[in-house]
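Hi, here's the filled form for the chain we discussed.

Project: internal
Contact: R.S.
Residues: 253
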Amino acid sequence: MLNKEIIAINQDALAKQAQLVRRDTEGEWDIWLGELSGSKQVLGVANWRNNSQTVSVDLSSLGIASATARDVWAAKDAGAVSGSQTLNLAGHELRIWVLSDVVATAPPESGKYYSAANASHSGSAQVVTCAAGACLPTGVKVGNILNANSSATFANVSAESAGKKLLNVDFINYDYAFTTSWGLGDNIRNMTVAVNGNQAKRWAFPLSGGDWQESLGLHIEVDGFVKGTGNTVEFRGFGNGPAPDLVGFTIIE
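And the returned structure, exactly as it came back:
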C-alpha cells in the first residue's frame, strides 16, 4: 500500500479506532466513523456488493452539521459537505473521506430503553445476569438464541411517528474466528428484526468486545413502525445459526 494519506490515517497520533456506526446487511453496505488528531474525523462507506450501488449518508445523524471533505483514495478535495450525501460506489469500493472544519450538531436523541430481560422469550432464549459493570447498560442479557425458533419480543414500543426508525441495538458477540478459521472462518452472528409482524430483515452483528459480557451498540434502520405505543419489535435467530446475545435497544428520533 503506497497511498500516503491512507497510511497517515493508520498512523494518526490520536490512535483511535474507527467505529461501525451503520450497517445494512441485506443492502450490503457499512458506514464507519472515527476521530483523528487536529479535530478531524474519518468517514468510511463500504459497498460489499459485486455491483455498484448508491448509498446515502445523513451526516446530521452522525453528529456532523457540516465539514470539508477530502477523498483520500482519489487524492482530491470533495469540498463542503452537509446534510444527506449520496455516494455512488463501485463494487467493493470503500470511499474514505477525511473531514476537517467539522461543525458538530446534536444527533437525534434516544428514547426509552427496552431491556431484553423484560421482553417475551421463545425457544431456547433465556435471561442471563452478568457480573457487576458488564452487559451494559442493564447488567443482564438474553442469551442462548440458538436459531430461528428462538426470539425476544418487545411489546408496547413507543414511536413518535410512523415509518422507518433508527434503532441502537446493544448486543454481545464473542464468537471469535479462531475456532472456525479452518471452516467458515466468520466471527459474525446473524439476527433478524421485524416490526409489527412485517417482513423480518437480517443483520450481521460483529464482535462486540473481549468476552461474552462486553456489549456494543449497533445502529440499524428498521421500517414498519406506527405512531404511538402500539408497536411490537421481534428479535429472532436466523436459520440454524446462533444469534448474538441481546441486551436491549432504544429508538433514536
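Let me know if anything looks off before we file it.
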